[in-house]
Hints:
By secondary structure, this protein is α/β, with parallel strands linked by helices. The chain has helices at residues 10-17, 37-49, 64-70, 104-109, 118-129, 150-161, 181-186, 197-206, 212-218, 223-231, 235-246, 250-259, 265-285, 295-304, 307-323, 330-343; strands at 26-30, 77-80, 138-142, 167-173, 188-191. α6 links the parallel β3 and β4 (167-173). 36% of the residues are buried. Zinc ion is lined by residues 50-52, 59-61, 63, 65-66.
Amino acid sequence: xxxxxxxxxxxxxxxxxxxxxxxxxxxxxxxxxxxxxxxxxxxxxxxxxxxxxxxxxxxxxxxxxxxxxxxxxxxxxxxxxxxxxxxxxxxxxxxxxxxxxxxxxxxxxxxxxxxxxxxxxxxxxxxxxxxxxxxxxxxxxxxxxxxxxxxxxxxxxxxxxxxxxxxxxxxxxxxxxxxxxxxxxxxxxxxxxxxxxxxxxxxxxxxxxxxxxxxxxxxxxxxxxxxxxxxxxxxxxxxxxxxxxxxxxxxxxxxxxxxxxxxxxxxxxxxxxxxxxxxxxxxxxxxxxxxxxxxxxxxxxxxxxxxxxxxxxxxxxxxxxxxxxxxxxxxxxxxxxxxxxxxxxx
Length: 346
Ligand SMILES: [Zn+2]
C-alpha cells in the first residue's frame, strides 16, 4: 500500500535511528492493529540492507539492494508470516490491505494457514548459515508474532538465544500478551504510536474514505483497519449485528446467529467486545469510544445492566476471542455468545 512512512511515523522513525549504532539482535515493534507497524518495519529492513542509506536513515530506493528488496528477492532478506497473508498486497502485512488476486485459485483448494509454523522457522536456518551478500547484514521480518504456534515459538526462541552473526530479527505484534515471555525477554521492545485523531482523519480523507470519523471511531483510532473496513462489504453485516445488540432477546439471537453464521466469528466477537466496552464505559463515566452513533441505545442498555454482569461479559468475551478462529460450529458459537448477552438484560 505504501512505499513510505505514514505521516504519524516520522518521530518514531527518528527514535529508531538512535538504535542503529548498536543494533539489537531482535526488535519487537508493538502497538495496536492497523497503525502501520509492518510497513514501518519493512522500510526499516530495507534501510538496513540499503547500500547508500540517506542521512535520515531511509533507504535510497535506487541501489541494487533496494531494487532486490522491492521485488522481494533480496538474498539477505526473509519475510516470515502466515500463509493466509500471502495473497495480500506485498507491503500491507497485518494492516489489512486489499487482497491480491494472484493466489485465489491456490487458496480455494485448501484454507491457508493463519499460523506461522515450525517449518517456516526451520527454513531460516539454511538462510542463516550461508554467508551474506557483500558481507552485509541479514534481516528477518516476522509478523504478526502472535501467529507463531507453540512449536514455532520454541524454535524461534532457540535462534534468538544463540543469535547468528550479522542477523537482525524484526518482529511485529498487535498483542504482546499473546507472546511467550521468553520471546519477549529476547527482544528489544519498540512501541509504535497510535496517530492523533487529526492525523488519522487527514490520512483517511486522502484515501477518499467516506464517513471517515465513523470508521475511525469503530476501529479505536487505527486508520489502516478503518480503511480496510470502509472498503469491505461488511458494513451491512456490522449494522445488522449492532442492531441486534441494541435489542437483546432470545428470538433475535437465534435469528442473528443463523443469518451471520458465514461471517468470520472473530470479527463478530471483536464487534461485540467493542460494544460491551462502550456499555461499560458509558455506565461508569458516560463516554463512548467505538460506537458514538448508537449513543441512545447504549445509554438505554447501560441503565438496565449491572456493572458486575458487564465485567463478566467482557471477561468471557476475551476468552471467546482466544478460540474464535476455530469454532467447532460458527452458528452455535454465535448463538451462545448472543444468548449470554441477552441474559444480562433479562
Ligand atoms: Zn538503497
